Amino acid sequence: MTGPRTILCFGDSNTYGAVPTLARIGRHRFAPARRWTGILQRLLGPEWQVVEEGHPSRTTVFDDPIEGAHKNGLRALPVCLESHMPIDLVIIMLGTNDLKHRFGASPGDIADSVEVLVKAVQKSEAGPGGAAPAVMVIAPPAILEVGWLGEMFAGGAAKSREFAPRFREVAARCNVPFLDAGTLAESSAVDGIHLDEDSQRALAGAVAERLRALLGDAAPAARKPGRRRRTN
Would you say the C-alpha torsion 108, 113, 118, 124 has a positive or negative sign? Predict the structure, then answer.
């Protein structure tokens, strides 16, 4: 008997479920059922296993000189693929931490780095039967330069507004589905980076609906999430 199909959600603190906060220390995390990955699991049901691989401060391909080389997504990706295989689908939502001033990365550099991750999945043998998993690219919402993270992400807000078109081009080149999270979720005005509960729900609902459209009867119909309330 075959088990549930597996979705690996590979991301940063917004996949980890970090709560928007005004404080640099004592940061908190939404409970599993309130994170977008947990909501997605509920919407899809037991036929699917949603694996949450969210690491705060994770970059696409950059070693972080302050927070550590282990924040490099390209270093972590092969481990995650091998740990959870066979994987049917990998959802990549990264790029926000590449906006940190210390990296000096352009929107084009960040998009190209996402493409490196997509191709790493496509070259892997982590899918069913030793094939490559399918991939979906999600462009994170634009950020705000506010609060205690504002200086760290100085100049990043304008760059982040270019994510959607740039990431869409990457998805087209790699022939994978694309979702613009900025059309349905927004970074909280509290810290400018993280998603509040409304945005967590909206993102989960959109991903579930997209999976339904892509996979047809293989993905259960998703209930529509509650209406998103703006926070700024």
Answer: positive
Q: Which amino acid is at 151?
A: E
Cα separation, 10 vs 92, in Å, equals: 5
**Token pair for residue 10?**
């590979």
Q: Which two tokens stand for residue 188?
A: 């909280």
- Angstrom distance (rounded) from CA 115 to CA 113: 5
201, two tokens: 């729900």
Lowest mean pLDDT among 21-25, 35-39, 49-53: 21-25
Backbone angles phi, psi at 51, to 5 degrees: -100, 120
Structural domain boundaries of the chain?
Answer: 5-218
Residue the block writes with tokens 């703006």:
230
Diameter of the chain measured on Cα atoms = 53
Q: How many residues does the chain have?
A: 232
Q: Tell me the helix, strand and coil percentages in the chain, rounded to 5.
A: 40, 15, 40
Region 5-218: CATH code? 3.40.50.1110
Cα–Cα distance, 213 to 190 (Å, whole number): 34
- Neighbouring CB atoms inside 10 A of 165's CB total 12
Helices vs strands, H then E, count in the chain: 7, 5
CA-to-CA distance for 156 and 71, rounded, in angstroms? 19
Mention every residue, 6+ apart, whose C-beta is less than 8 A from residue 1.
none
pLDDT for 83-120, tens place per residue?
999 999 999 999 999 999 999 999 999 999 999 999 99
